[in-house]
Amino acid sequence: MRQPSVRARRVAAASVSLVVAAGVAACGPEDSDAKGSGGDSAPHKGGTLTILNSQPQEDFDPARLYTSGGGNVPSLVFRTLTTRNRENGEAGAKVVPDLATDTGRPNKDATVWTYTLKKGLKYEDGTPITSADIKYGIERSFAPELSGGAPYLRDWLAGAADYQGPYKDKKGLAAIETPDERTIVFHLNKPEGEFPYLATQTQFAPVPKSKDTGTRYESHPVSSGPYKVVKNENDGEHLVLERNPNWSAQTDAERKAYPDTIDVRSGLDSSVINQRLSASQGADAAAVTTDTNLGPAELAKVSGDRKLAARVGTGHFGYTNYLAFNPKVKPFDDPKVRQAIAYAVDRSSVVNAAGGSALAEPATTFLPNQKSFGYTPYDPFPAGQAGNPAKAKELLAQAGHKNGLTLTLTHSNSKDFETSPEIATAVQDALKKAGITVKLQGLEENDYKDKIHSVKSEPGLFLAHWGADWPSGGPFLAPIFDGRQIVKDGANFNTGLLNDKSVNDEIDAINKLTDLDAAARRWGALDKKIGDKALVVPLFHPVYKRLYGSDVKNIVISDWTGVLDVSQVAVK
Fold first, then answer.
1. What is d(CA 81, CA 134) in angstroms, rounded to the nearest whole number?
2. How confident is the model at residue 82 (pLDDT cuts 50, 70, 90)?
3. Pairing mode of beta strands 82-84, 95-97
């Protein structure tokens, strides 16, 4: 459920990368937040873990994947310079070393980052992993035929904007230096204190140049992680992973790699996945899903069964659903009209439309309510959970609309409980109490995305959502509110078309900080400053509920991904 992010925008989920396959967020499994939950005995090695998914693991090439923290299934095969901390809840939102000895050493202004590789790193064939392999892996991600990954490297690396990859330009990127086999240095065109987060993306996975087969590499990428690919059918629809004999736990403190085999089966209907996990018959007893949530009706059934309820993992990914305004379209050019709508919204009805309080939490901040993002509680237009239609009418009268307004709300027809008809209807009903007549414009998903992400066609009022590329305020606020990221002839995500120098300058100032806790506090303050402008109305943060099989043990769900981490799971 992750949403695309900077410029070339990433798939919503993020879609994202949440892209849904990337995951969701976390507080830990039901009734437990302790690592190792999900069974009554210690986890052990062996067995087969089955993963039942609706979306295939397409483009299984580290250059083409758009993942957060290295992804879930991908991180079993691809190690990166840094990775997410594999712990429950808040602790899991931290970035930690992976192939590197630390999370990176910046120069004084964070424009140069240096990494040293751990000793003894090997590929699945036993050959050593070198810094040159990581440099090459990054360079090939620039090749047009291997597009799809996060766009940050093209934006951040010095002189990389027009690079076309090693197949066309064999000189490589001068911005990446490898003075020896264990050292790699990155030169950036501007300060980036969050570079350690970026280094978790799969583009930082090593690729041996001699084994690169271009667009065919995805069928058998060379593993640097605990598992290697032994089968990839129908572009990731059926993926089988087996142990990499040359992976060493001594160099990898994060991945537990308990099962002998990982069997990923995709293209399944979400209701079928939940039925199979609920029944837990045969191989399904040792099964999980990394992309399928329980819906409202399914959750109601599960909640009535104590044993089933004990097999539900709960997660909170960094993700916000909101109402977006285009202030270039009347009457939304008037701040009082936008404020009136903010007061009129009934978040309790919106939450109910999203599946109830078990699946959605009301939001008054754009940033998700997690510490790593810099969450700072605020509500610039406090109207309680049910809205304040009287205050809304007062503001409308001040704006010259004492007899009310008639507006159009654009939404998607997808049944996603986010930008779908249910949410739009809840907003429509609430605004009616304030004298605002709302006409609904439902569009098919592709038409909806094309319309809302084009500066030329963006409607005045529409439903939107955003997910984080990593758990920080940077990739959350900058794509939506940095005026320099307004894209006039492509996919634009700065929905409010905000180009405020003070906001842009603060984004630059925070990006210079390498103290991520200090940066988080600044992101929270910036969120409040932007919130006062009423360019969006935060509606809710989703909560993710996912079943797992009865023989699955060691459940870990972090605030980075919000979903069960398959690198930690053991099976009976």
1. 8
2. very high
3. antiparallel
